[in-house]
Specification:
single chain; 329 residues; alpha/beta; Rossmann fold; Helicase, Ruva Protein, domain 3; 5-stranded parallel β-sheet; two-stranded antiparallel sheet
């Protein structure tokens, strides 16, 4: 097995060479926010959707657009509003008077990277249309079903302030996002650099580094990243600790958690950890990889009780505690 791990390691080192190039291209435009840029790459390598939460002006839209340019993918931005209809996303049938037929006009969801801006502003009908696209990688228009492009990734943004006129996302939809990222403000030095760049209009042009075919090839390499049985057990223990904390000697969390993480958490934790190892040019997963990515996979999957909310306890506090208490292999 050792030789096999060595071979995987060498293969991953070769296949992941483009990662630093993509990162360099994105950092020409985006100042700071390395955490967000890394997670965007993890999402595209692990074939998972991402929910971004942050106040306006933190370059969320710009980061997704820049990623699409550097990996030569089709990009669509959909601004979600309360009057949006499912047809505005997936497309609709349009009457053609010349041929007296109804033709399909495909919507903006037919692209590789979809930015769903302020996703919580649209009503349930629109959310369910997006849900089919996210889960099934297909949409139904009229009596036909159309397969979406590959790679296909939804990056949805949520504004944590200004909650008037918003619709909370259904738990079923939130669970379909592999990662939920909380984007924070830049520091003083970064903000000064942003200000100077914008004032001087000093943004380089983004080069195409890879294409969708190369992304698909990289995904195959990610799936081969070695994960030891002990690491798999570690993932299962972390997820089960969100459901039955008393079994892991953290009995005081029992009254704080209404629902623990679903089995998707275990699947996504394994896939995201493999992608994280791949980004580091490593052919095997370490417990540290799990710890680094666990918060983004679990923060939206741990549903709190009223008691926890009354005590101002956030799901992040629960996840931190679990990572501290669950035994590391």
């Amino acid at each position: 097995m050792e030789k096999s791990i060595k071979e995987i390691n060498e293969m991953v080192k070769q296949e992941s060479l483009f990662v630093s190039e993509v990162m360099n291209e994105m950092e020409k435009i985006i100042v700071g926010q390395r955490y967000m840029l890394e997670r965007l790459l993890i999402g595209i390598l692990a074939d998972g959707h991402i929910l971004l939460e942050g106040v306006p002006g933190l370059a969320k839209t710009l980061a997704v657009k820049t990623l699409a340019q550097s990996v030569d993918c089709g990009f669509s931005r959909i601004q979600f509003t309360p009057d949006l209809l499912p047809g505005d996303i997936i497309g609709t049938m349009v009457f053609n008077p010349k041929a007296s037929t109804f033709d399909v006009r495909k919507g903006p969801v037919f692209a590789n990277l979809i930015l769903a801006d302020e996703v919580n502003r649209a009503p349930a009908k629109v959310q369910s249309a997006l849900l089919e696209a996210m889960q099934e990688r297909q949409v139904s228009i009229g009596d036909k079903t159309y397969t979406l492009d590959d790679p296909f990734m939804v990056l949805a943004t949520q504004n944590p302030i200004e909650q008037e006129g918003t619709y909370p996302l259904p738990e079923a939809q939130i669970d379909r996002f592999m990662l939920k990222l909380k984007i924070t403000y830049p520091d003083k030095k970064q903000e000064k650099e942003i200000m100077e760049k914008v004032s001087a209009n000093n943004f380089g042009s983004v080069k195409r580094v890879v294409d969708p075919a190369r992304i698909k090839k990289a995904r195959q390499a990610v799936r081969q990243v070695y994960m030891d049985e002990k690491i798999k057990d570690y993932i299962i223990n972390i997820v089960f600790a969100t459901r039955n904390p008393e079994e892991y000697k953290i009995k005081d969390l029992k009254n704080m958690i209404s629902f623990g993480a679903s089995p998707r958490a275990s699947i996504y934790l394994a896939e995201a950890a493999r992608s994280y190892a791949f980004l580091s040019g490593r052919g095997y997963v370490t417990p540290e990889d799990i710890k680094n990515i666990a918060m983004d996979v679990l923060r939206h999957r741990v549903i709190l009780t009223y008691e926890a909310e009354a005590e101002n306890i956030a799901s992040e506090d629960i996840v931190k505690r679990i990572l501290l208490e669950v035994e590391v292999p």
